[in-house]
Amino acid sequence: MLPSRTIACAAVMLLLLSQTSCVYSVNPLTDPEKCNIDERLIGVWKEAGKDDVSYVFIGRPWDVKGRPDGLMVMHSTTFNADHELNWIETPSYFFSVKVGEGQYLQCVKLSSSKKLTEWDGAGKRLYQFWKYQIVADRLTLWMMDQDAAKKAIEDGVLKGTVQKKKTNITPEVTLTEPTEGLRRYLASDRSKALFPEQTKITLQRVK
Which of 14, 43, 82, 194 is buried most deeply by CB count within 10 Å? Predict the structure, then answer.
């Protein structure tokens, strides 16, 4: 099931929000140590809703020891009609990756901690992929659709697991496809099904 507009907006603010329909991968699209900063992402972005405005701040983390040069961080907050400010405590960490003609956010899933304080280059981690596009002052993001990823696994197109959990309404989908296979699939026309228009969110740059 695709997320509602409200849930989708919240997902953009966190990117790794556990209650949304997320698809994780045990392998990255690109080695984090070889990723480069996409300078176009840096800055302040906003998404205006009916009753509130969400702001997204993207830059480089200053407080992560041993971080790769390509590591980026996102902070976010919402400001509602009652002038209440809700600052999201947990930042999101990610890398910009180019695959074929597409650009992706390679997001790092945090374990139990709310912040990343030190980068362990040899450590195992999970990733979440978002497709993105920047045109003029608009940043458009597409979340990977869980049902499409589940189907790709069940059809044998991508390697992965689908596990139902008692605490979650939707199953947990984890891709185990090697990096080369992931890149090959995302560079093909078949990958369009993974990022449908229904998951699209557009942010406007704040000048």
Answer: 194
